[in-house]
Amino acid sequence: MPVPVILDCDPGHDDALAILLAAASPALDLLAITTCGGNQTVEKCTLNARRVCSVAGITDVPIARGAEGPLMRSLHIGEYVHGVSGLDGPEWGDPTVPESEESAHALIVRLLRESLEPVVLIPTGPLTNIALVLASHPELKPKIREIVLMGGSTERGNDTPYAEFNIRVDPEAADIVFRSGVPVTMCGLNVTHQALATPDVLDRLRALGTRMGDLCVELLTFFSASYLKTWGFTSPPVHDPVAVARVIDPSLVEVIPAPVSIETQGRYTAGATCVDLHHLTGEPDNALVAMRLDTPRFWDLLIGAIASYA
Ligand code: BDR
Ligand code: CA
To answer: What gap in Å lies between CA 269 and CA 260, rounded to an integer?
Structure first.
């Protein structure tokens, strides 16, 4: 039976690939795509989710708009990585798939209530929507099988020296999620930096000879330039599909249990994920922390998914 999932995202180049992977996988039943402000404003991220689904022909998955910005802070966007549109690179026509009339919050709550089996939430943006659901409807926690998120790091950050972008945008929301008692798997930079879109990956996408293969090359070419300019990466890390891949096939991503706390106060470190790998604090484990990606099998999975589109 496919696992029911909700993808909560802020597309975003790597979020776009996460959408393609989640919608194509026979192992998943993608119930909804929900959006929040992050890589760009929520308005642009929602438009981008609709653009991706329109070109891919994903017409049966509702797309609902979520939080405009973080719980307690103003929104800091990732325009320096994803461009003015949030999905710069390809030429996008007008989207044909609509935006849901329900808000992300209302849709997630309804789907959790209605689902006969617990749902996996896959957040690949700031955790604002998820925190709002947990805080407003704690009775629905048993309906969430797991939260498998892209965010954080066991090492240093990318948006600030110590904080990864998704957690740093809304640390208070991340704090609610990690303290919620719901099982959390954290796919942070330490593992997503093992998913580099190398020239060989781009060649494989080009060799598909499809419109979607070419579109992914255009997305990754823009993304590559951002990563070279800001961080000196010669190949960009494709973060968000790693969280989706972990749900599709847990054997692709090795995890270890650990206590994880979110820094919400630090003058220089707000949004840092303090991962107690050696159990020095005596705090109980509250997350599975992704450590190692089976990179060849990950690319086979993602490129295989992209190959399934025209
Ligand atoms: C995360 O931040 C965004 O730029 C990406 O979409 C990814 O979710 C990486 O830090
Ligand atoms: Ca993202």
So the answer is: 15
Q: Tokens for 196, please give them.
A: 């580099």
Asked if 205 contacts 182 with a C-beta cutoff of 8 angstroms, the reply is: no
| Among the listed residues 266, 216, 259, the one whose alpha carbon sits nearest the alpha carbon of residue 90 | 216
Q: Return the active site residues.
A: 239
CB 151 within 8 A of CB 110: no
Segment 64-82 shows an average pLDDT of 97
Helix (H, G, I), strand (E, B) or coil at 76: coil
Burial status of residue 229 (CB atoms within 10 A of its CB: 0-12, 13-18, 19 or more)? exposed
Letter string b/e over residues 92-109, b meaning 16 or more CB atoms within 10 A of that residue's CB: beebebebbebbbbebbb
Task: Please indicate whether residue 158, judged by its CB atom, sits closer than 6 Å to ligand 1.
Answer: yes
Banded model confidence at residue 83, pLDDT cuts 50, 70, 90: very high
Pocket test for ligand 1, best of 82, 127, 240 (most atoms within 8 A of CB): 240
pLDDT band at 21 (very low <50, low <70, confident <90, very high): very high
**Residue 121 forms beta bridges with which residues?**
6, 147
124 ligand 1 Cβ < 6 A: yes
pTM, rounded to two decimals: 0.99
Nearest to 95 by CA among 126, 57, 128: 57
d(CA 144, CA 119): 5
